[in-house]
Specification:
The complex is a heterotrimer of chains A (378), B (212) and C (240).
Chain A lengths: L1 E12 L2 E13 L4 E5 L6 H8 L7 E6 L2 E2 L5 H6 L1 E4 L11 H5 L1 H5 L4 H14 L4 H4 L9 H13 L5 E5 L7 H18 L2 E6 L2 H7 L2 E6 L2 E6 L1 H6 L4 H7 L3 H5 L5 H4 L7 E2 L4 H11 L3 E5 L5 E6 H4 L6 H4 L1 E2 L3 E3 L4 H11 L3 E5 L5 E6 H9 L12
Parallel strand pairs in A: 3-8, 3-9, 6-7, 7-8, 11-12, 15-16
Antiparallel strand pairs in A: 1-2, 1-4, 4-5, 9-10, 12-13, 13-14, 16-17
Helix pairs in contact in A: 5-7
Chain B lengths: L4 H32 L4 H16 L2 H13 L7 H25 L3 H9 L4 H34 L9 H9 L3 H29 L9
Helix pairs in contact in B: 1-4, 1-6, 2-4, 4-6, 5-6, 6-8, 7-8
Chain C lengths: L1 H22 L3 H43 L4 H16 L2 H12 L3 H25 L3 H9 L4 H35 L8 H10 L2 H29 L9
Helix pairs in contact in C: 2-5, 2-7, 2-9, 3-5, 4-5, 5-7, 6-7, 7-9, 8-9
Amino acid sequence: MIRMENLTKIFDTPDGDITAVNHVNMEVPAGEICILLGPSGCGKTTTLKMINGLIPKSSGKIFIDGKDTDTVDPVELRRNIGYVIQQIGLFPNMTIEDNICVVPDLLGWEKAKSRKRAAELLELVNLVPSAFLKRYPKELSGGQQQRVGVIRALAADPPVLLMDEPFGAIDPINRAVIQDEFLKMQKEIKKTIMFVSHDIDEAIKMADKIAIFKDGVLEQYSAPDDLLASPANDFIASFLGQDRTLKRLSLLCVDDVKFGEEYKVHGEADLANAIAQMKELGHQNIVVTGLRGRARAFLHLNDIMGKKGVIEEYRQALPAVANVKEDLKTAVSTMFRHDVSWLACVDDDGFYKGYITQKAISRALSAIYRDETLNTKR
Amino acid sequence: MVDNLGLIGQRTLEHVSIVGVAVGIAILTGVPIGIAITQSKRAADIVLGIASVIVTIPSVALFGLMIPILSTIGQGVGYLPAVIAVLLYSQLPIIRNTYVAITNVDPAMREAAKGLGMTTMQRLMWVEIPLAVPVVMVGVRVAVVMNIGITAIAAYIGAGGLGTFISRGISQTDPRQLITGAIAVSVLAIVSDYFLLFVQKKLTPPQSTVID
Amino acid sequence: MRATTSIFLVFAAGVAFSLLLLNNDGLLIQIWVNFADDVDFLIRQHIYLVVLSGGLAILIAVPMGVWLSRPYMRKFAEGAMQGLNVGTTVPTLAVLALSMSFLGIGVLPAIFALWIATLLPIVRNTYVGIREVPDFLIEAATGMGMTRTQILFRIELPNALYVIFAGIRTALAINVGTVPLAFLIGAGGLGELIFTGIALDNIEMMLAGAIPVALLAMLVDFIFLQIQTWSISRGVNPLR
């Protein structure tokens, strides 16, 4: 847990005092990722660097796991906080193994223990230890260096991790891969992470909470979905961009907006049953399932209205389906690709799980969250 | 001192003439060699290897080693061995800087030149050499400053120059000649350094930077 | 690769030169017979001058360069570098001459002049090498909880070492090249044979000095090249 109380930084410059960070109060709960976001010069990096004392604060308090950081020697403090910088900063004179073991060595761990730890961490990010331990940073690709940079910060198992644009230096394709790996890793290690970014999409993807800064002031501190749904002021709305609603598509998944799981017909059911269900649901289509409940096909109301016979005769193939785990961005693009207004939702094994419609998606996006407890405690 | 100004001027001219002639020839030989060896890594290793070994040999020893060889044409001491020594010592900085400058030309720029339909020769003349000039100038500067010092020592093999004041000052234990020589040769080196730095900056296009 | 090529070339040059001399009435053998004792005595003086002045220069120049690179010296350091640059431009014979005018003749003024001439390139390269270590490495090291001293010894010096060694090699080449001149101000060494040989037009005597001086210079450079190649981490060593 990281807590800041009235954290302030005033830089003394030849042109007079500049308040870089102005009475910031915020708390990052244990195990969450908080991303500091804002235009350049907004004070986000200064805030981050005050936590490990790289920039001395002017006033205010910082608590880590309830402990006032002023009471801890800064060198000691930094050894217990993982730190990742944008330039990665692997030490070129050291092997990968020695780089990972920097903090354990500073803390005086036994060699055997720290070296074993280095190998474990490399495995965690899918780098083969035997191939990488003895290499030097210049012998690694940018993406590999970035992974090592992250695990180096985790080497001594610090509870808190500070990251200054950690994925900023990598190309977009590798960045997405490393972000995904990092999120997967975070599910296991559950560190309290504070993370500076200038990339809104990255923040929306990775953060549990986003803190938006402007001119040293914390403007809004909320979960990504709340932020996109209800920006606190015009600055934030314009900072998030005109397409902020669309950005929410990647935050919600099919499971969040699907409905009508109970409406379905078996291949052997009669047409009247199908018509009745469609009327009840107010929908012109219904999914036909197999014996065990897998989505097989669909019926259109107009095809069977006033007809007699078996469903088999009138059923049409499903143009596409949406997996319940997909985000809405994927589902919407599938709809556009097949020019349909709805999709049948299935799980990994193909079992029918409900419908997703364009209308339901629009409704979900325009819904305004009013749960004040999630909003910033300013 | 004032009476001797004429003599100082004459010695300075001798000094400058040895360094100037030798470095001039060194540019004429070193630049083509530097360009030629960009075609083969192996040739580059060998040529730069020889040049660095030559620079390692102390000038006093080099003068000595040349005496028996040049004596065969009756030029064991004097102007010629001094010029040859300076010429040899200047090869490394000039060849190396030419080589480095040309191999460091941005591959994108080389591609662009190819894309414009330039031949290898045209590329060399219009793109690579102009870009290399400031870097080669750094090599020339290093060579000149180093060889002003070496030419001073050449006074001991009868080549004249400002070193003559120092050699006489030492043998006659005459502090005036000693200090005159030492200061004159130092001033010459420092002034040449600044002058060539100025030339080098003039030759450097504003957007590019040369690290020396 | 460069190192092996150089060794081969030195060897080949040595053989060629020896053959040349041997053809010339067995000159090399005569030199050996006539001057072995002198060379033995003078080479000891010579090496003494190199080791003492060079060693003292390294021992003092590296800490000086480190000191100039400290943040609190920043305002002063650039000016000092300008001074050092001018200083390295001054020819070594002039340095010896000036040293002699102030300290007289003998071993002390020679060592002092050699020490000054050797010192400057090492100070400069140490300073530049350390300043060239990127700021973000220092930030990463600080952020990971290293103290100033730990950063100096674990990050700054190891990453600057290649440049520092380049400075040491340049400085020692200057040193070894200047030591023969030390004879001129009464400090002895192999310069005695060279300069006396030139003065007396005695080629044998002159070569008895010049050949060992040249070989010694190559040997010193070779030794330090090996140290530079093998003592510096592969991660920051362009030679490996």
